[in-house]
Amino acid sequence: METKNSKRATVVRHTGSQYTVSDLPVWEPVVCVLRGKLRLKGATSTNPIAVGDHISYEPQEDGTGVITAIEPRKNYIIRKSTNLSRQAHIIASNLDQVFLIVTLDFPETKLEFIDRFLVTCEAYKVPVVILLNKSDLYTKEYSGYKEFFHDIYSRSAGYTILETSGTTKHNIEIIKDMCRGKLSLFSGISGVGKSSLINSLDPSLSLKTGEISQYHKQGKHTTTFYEIHPLTSGGFIIDTPGIKGFGLLEMEKEELSHYLPEMLRVLDDCRFSPCTHTHEPGCAVKKAVEDGEITPERYQSYLSMLEEEEKYR
Ligand SMILES: Nc1nc2c(ncn2[C@@H]2O[C@H](COP(=O)(O)OP(=O)(O)OP(=O)(O)O)[C@@H](O)[C@H]2O)c(=O)[nH]1
Ligand SMILES: [Mg+2]
Ligand SMILES: [Zn+2]
Q1: Which of 120, 84, 125 is nearest to 251 (CA)?
Q2: Average pLDDT of 125-143?
Q3: pLDDT tens, 17-29?
Q4: Residue 179 lies in a domain
Q5: Final residue of a structural domain among 70, 90, 118
Q6: At what angle do helices 194-201 and 172-179 cross, to 10 degrees?
Q7: Which ligand 1 atom is at minimum distance from the Cα of 239?
Q8: pLDDT at 83 over 70
Q9: Same domain membership, residue 151 and residue 263
Q10: 106, 185, 189, 196: residue to mutate for ligand 1 pocket, most atoms within 8 A of CB
């Protein structure tokens, strides 16, 4: 419900029942609660309001606010914790770009996770850049794996990959430039160095970071909520808790291949339409796999996502 006193703002932080909002790019946070009666049409997510949402609120006399309306989202990133869970969680909305932070080791980010994440970005039309972080740790013995990684995600799938390090500040200035004037999401599994990277973009933020457990070589889920931070060099970034699992959302079987750019490039040439690219004769995707234009890793990922779709539907 809009009233003449209501103001517009963006949700910059969400903890429990509290939402902090600010009329970006102005940084003047106001703490708000949600009006009890606010019903969100078709909400199937666990969080009715996410960081990045554009909302209206009524300022109260004590300096807080009451959120009264939410505007339609330009885009968003959403996940299910597992394939079995019915409810989904909106990570953030109205994004200009996503940085998917991955590490080859310390901890290892599984390719399966990367592929699910990328498919979600494509499905929701959010531009994504892969940051291969902790580049300082990749000694010569990793060079083969690094090449393999670039082959799959850059040369074949066409994504931009930047090697970064919060420790040596490798490529930090480039990331700063990319963030100016935009709202960027930093996402990835726990311990890949999201908060550390953000700290090196802007040391004044001094976000909490955590050690990697020696035994499991895994992160310890140090960041626990979603929050937008203003960067001194310009732009706004969202630090997020490490993602554990990434279940795909329901989509039509025929749709999935549209969300792998290297498949999308060739699938118009399949003899049958729709084509699941599994058993059909004259399939252009299978031919591209044979010719080495589509990597076997991504094709395998595609098959496993397809199978999952059928299983959990
Ligand atoms: N060698 C090296 N270590 C790093 C780098 N970036 C972060 N680390 C270390 O990795 C550990 C985890 O860093 P965080 O920034 O807390 O990771 P995170 O992704 O924010 O983790 P969560 O908040 O748990 O999701 C810390 O011990 C950091 O010191 C890097 O570029 N190089
Ligand atoms: Mg963190
Ligand atoms: Zn096909």
Answers
A1: 120
A2: 95
A3: 899 999 999 999 9
A4: yes
A5: 70
A6: 80
A7: 20
A8: no
A9: no
A10: 196
